[in-house]
Amino acid sequence: MWKKLSSEEINTRVFTALDRTIDYKTRIPLGIPGSHLDSKVFYTDMPMLKDAPYLSSLVQNPNHIGCHTLGESEPFFEGTHAIESEVIRICAEDILKGEPNQHDGYIAAGGTEANIQAIWVYRNLFVNTFGIKADQIAILCSEDSHYSMNKAANLLGTQLVQIPVDFTTRAMSKEDISSAVAELSKNGIKHVIGVANMMTTMFGSVDSVEDYVSSFTEHHMEFRIHVDGAYGGFVFPFISEDDSLSFANPHVSSVTLDAHKMVQAPYGTGIFLVKKDLIHQVYTNEAQYVQGLDVTLSGSRSGANAISVWMILQTYGPNGWHEKIHLLSYRGDWLQRQLERLKVGHFRTSGSNILTLDAKAVPIDLVTKYGLVPDSHGGEANWYKIVIMDHVTVDALKPFIQELEQRLLE
Questions:
Q1: CATH class of 317-409
Q2: Pick the residue with more confidence: 334 or 23?
Q3: Residues 149-182: pLDDT tens digits?
Q4: What is the pLDDT of residue 407?
């Protein structure tokens, strides 16, 4: 599915999709509670729009309510719906090694929504299949997992078990996982959702799916595995041969990605991916006025976000994206060598563009000056992280290293 396209090919494809999407200026539907952007406020007739497909999609304002990999959806916006479906296939098949046409998904408002969507699907699956209550289901994740797990448990009424990690390696031990699962089993909990991180937001650390599976199997648990790749989904598959966190692993049922991080799409662009025959667990049958009903947490969504992701991925193509990520990884190699030279304690997953520094080695004024992020704003920080994004070059890193070296010498 994923191929590098020229700017002319991208423009043609997007404008063709917009031609198949309702233009409120040329066709006046009487029943849709929506319209193009307000022309009294926004410049909607600028000549530049004819060469700007993303801006044109913002103006035309297609609604992407529903899940377009399921087939039937609102026909008024079918052109741009097809582009979103293609993004889902590229992510599920080309990046995460899934089988063709075996996944559903949608562009969510962010990684938080996508993670909650996954827990919602599995909670309903367990409730509908086994006749249990929500509080008889547990989410298992590491203590380094994103706070969306706390939100999901709170919103959906499930239990949440956070497993400690080693301070230095940021890894859960197999023994701690097994102990937590044994305690759940002792308390009568037999249905669990294991959340494995494909690079945590703070450390870039990676969890073991197999350690979950072996413990769940040992204690005869009914389980599903969700992978939180909100940060690492567009990084880890390109820096590692490990495919255990992808759809190549039969135990992985869903994955969260986040295009407004590494892909540099507009904020509010998460991606939820799930294997076929699962998302129907969250059909909202009461949404009868929506063709195809709705299975998403957010409902109405801007089609422009989906178009932005498609345009970015098609501009790079798989080889160009591989080069982009490895350039960031190279900068990470340079920074790691400097930290090792200065004997500054740090954590880094091999190839990652996140390096997290021991807080004891970094003066607080340098933290403020260079915008390092602590692991806690509410108490004493143990770690500060540097994230090497597209704009964080070696030239941008050098002044920090030079000042840090001077301070350490002093």
A1: alpha beta
A2: 334
A3: 999 999 999 999 999 999 999 999 999 999 999 9
A4: 95
What's the CA gap between 193 and 143, in Å, rounded?
A: 15
pLDDT greater than 70 at residue 398: yes
Spatial neighbors of 196 by CB under 8 A, at least 6 apart, are: 207, 208, 209, 212, 225, 226, 227, 228, 245, 252
User: pLDDT (tens digit, 9 = 90+) per residue, 83-100?
Assistant: 999 999 999 999 999 999
Domain ranges of the chain: 22-61, 99-297, 317-409
Q: In this predicted model, which residue has the larger pLDDT, 285 or 14?
A: 14
Question: Could you write out the three-class secondary structure of the chain?
Answer: CCCCCCHHHHHHHHHHHHHCCCCCCCCCCCCCCCCCCCCCCCCCCCHHHHHCHHHHHHHHCCECCCCHHHCCCCHHHHHHHHHHHHHHHHHHHHHCCCCCCCEEEEEECCHHHHHHHHHHHHHHHHHHHHCCCHHHEEEEEECCCCCHHHHHHHHHCCEEEEECCCCCCCCCCHHHHHHHHHHHHHCCCCEEEEEEEECCCCCCCECCHHHHHHHHHHCCCEEEEEEEECCHHHCHHHHCCCCCCCCCCCCEEEEEEECCCCCCCCCCCEEEEEECCCHHHHCCCCCCCCCCCCCCCCCCCEHHHHHHHHHHHHHHHHHHHHHHHHHHHHHHHHHHHHHHHCCCCEECCCCCCEEEEEHHHCCHHHHHHHCCEECCCCCCCCEEEEECCCCCCHHHHHHHHHHHHHHHHC
pTM above 0.85, yes or no: yes
pLDDT of residue 28: 81
Cβ atoms of 209 and 245 within 8 Å: the answer is: yes
For residues 183, 188, 193 and 198, what is the CA-based torsion angle, rounded to 10 degrees? 0
Widest CA span in the chain: 73
* 310: pLDDT strictly greater than 70: yes
On the CB side of 73, CA atoms within 13 Å amount to 25
Is residue 120 within 8 A of residue 157, CB to CB? The reply is no
CATH 3.40.640.10 fits 99-297, yes or no: yes
Alpha-carbon distance of 70 to 47, in angstroms, equals 37
